Each structure stands twice: as structure tokens, then as C-alpha cells.
Amino acid sequence: MARPTELDKRRELARAAVEVLRKEGIDVSMARLADVLEMKRPTLLYHFPTKAHIFEVALIDLLTEQAAFVLERIEAHTHPIDRLYAQLCAVHAFHHAREERVVFLTQAIASCAGPRMDEIIDIGNRVFEVHRNAAVERLREGMAAGTVAPCDAEALVATTRALTDGLMVQRVMTKLDLAPVHALIWTQLLAPLRREPPPR
Q: Is the pTM of this model over 0.85?
């Protein structure tokens, strides 16, 4: 078996550190954090000079894992509307019963990052930017081919993203059952935009 890389070790350490901070609070000192992780404080600081660095690595790790999971679900479909709906459902499936992880990380970054906040947000956005652009392009191609009803492709992708993120927060706050919401999004928003290829 291959030995873990330095990056893998750093990701594992970030995951473990986040669990401690989530349980004990983000005000825990780096010395206490190092103790719980059974390591020396200078070693912890070598990997993560600040708590913001811990949250940053953990968030990127989580979003990268999410991207791989979601892309596999999306690739099972060819129609751009089906792919958009698969993305929405896949994100929620990936985080099901674990939504508090991403909510905690984003809140922790907001409270700890300070002037680096914009940079960290940009890093998170870049993880998905290529895929969002591809979704917009597929919708435009679908409109040109007659398989997608005329619409604002960028607005549709942005709306789907807003629904995806907002519903995760709703599920954390209220334990909302997303199945009826998914059904409504499909029947009222997405399905009406889906067209079969015109006959040749």
C-alpha cells in the first residue's frame, strides 16, 4: 500500500482538528487543540499557522470530495436539464445527515479568516466554477439544438445553486424533508424547460 502523501496527512489532520473545534468551540487555543490531537503545538503550527488555515484546508477537502461524488451522478445523464437536476439531488445526497459540516466550516471561516475571507471564498468558488460554466454552455447548446426551451442559462444555473445551498441550510435548521421540494423543483421549474430532440 502506498504511503500517505504530505497533502493527505495535512487533509487528515485538518479533518481531525475541525472535529475538535466543532465539539469544543472555535475559541479553543492552538495549544489545547494540539493536546487533543496528541501532537506538539509547534508541529500543529507548522501545518496550520492559524485556525483559518485549518478551516480552509478542510473546506477545500470537503468540496473536492463533493465534486467527485456529484460529477459521477451527473455523468449518468446526457440531457442538460436532467444533469442540472441530478446535480441538485446529488449535492443533497452527499451531505445528507451531515449538512452541519459544511455549515460549520463556512461559519468558522467567516469568523476566523479576517482579511483572507475573499481569498478563501474565491478558492471555494474555483472548485466548481469550471462545472458551472460547463452547465451553462450545455444549456445553451440544448437551446440551439431544440432540447431546452429558451431561457437565461446563467440565471437558471444560479437559481439551481441558490436552491441547492439554501435547502441544505433549511435541512440543518428544520430537518426539512427535501423529497417534496425536489419534486416541485422538477415539475415546476426544470421539467417545463426540457424538450425531446426534434425529429430529423
A: no
